[in-house]
Write a structure and sequence with these properties.
single chain, 88 residues, mainly alpha, K_chnl_Slo-like, transmembrane helix, ion channel
Length: 88
C-alpha cells in the first residue's frame, strides 16, 4: 500500500511507518495545528493535559496500589473472589 501511495505522488506513506503509527512521532504540521488551536480555543491546553495524563478531571479515574496477593492472577479470579471492579 505504501508503494502505491508513493506512486500516486502522495506524501501519506510516512503514516504507515511503525514509529508514526505507534504515536511516537510529531510532525511540524501537527504541532503548528495544535498551537493554533490552543490560541483560538482556550480549553485546548486543558484538553491536551488531560489526554497526556498530566491533569485529572473531577470524577475521572485514579491510581491505586495493588497488593502482592493480586500479582500474576487473572482478572476473572480477582473479580470472583472480591467485589465487582468497574472498568470505565
Amino acid at each position: 500500500m505504501e508503494k502505491s501511495e508513493r506512486e500516486r505522488g502522495s506524501h501519506i506513506s510516512y503514516m504507515f511507518r511503525l514509529p508514526f503509527a505507534a504515536g511516537s512521532v510529531f510532525s511540524a504540521s501537527m504541532l503548528d495545528t495544535l498551537l493554533y488551536q490552543a490560541f483560538v480555543k482556550e480549553y485546548m491546553i486543558t484538553f491536551v493535559r488531560l489526554l497526556l495524563g498530566i491533569d485529572q478531571a473531577p470524577g475521572s479515574g485514579f491510581l491505586s496500589s495493588v497488593s502482592n496477593a493480586f500479582i500474576f492472577r487473572f482478572f476473572k479470579n480477582i473479580y470472583k473472589a472480591h467485589a465487582p471492579m468497574p472498568i470505565y
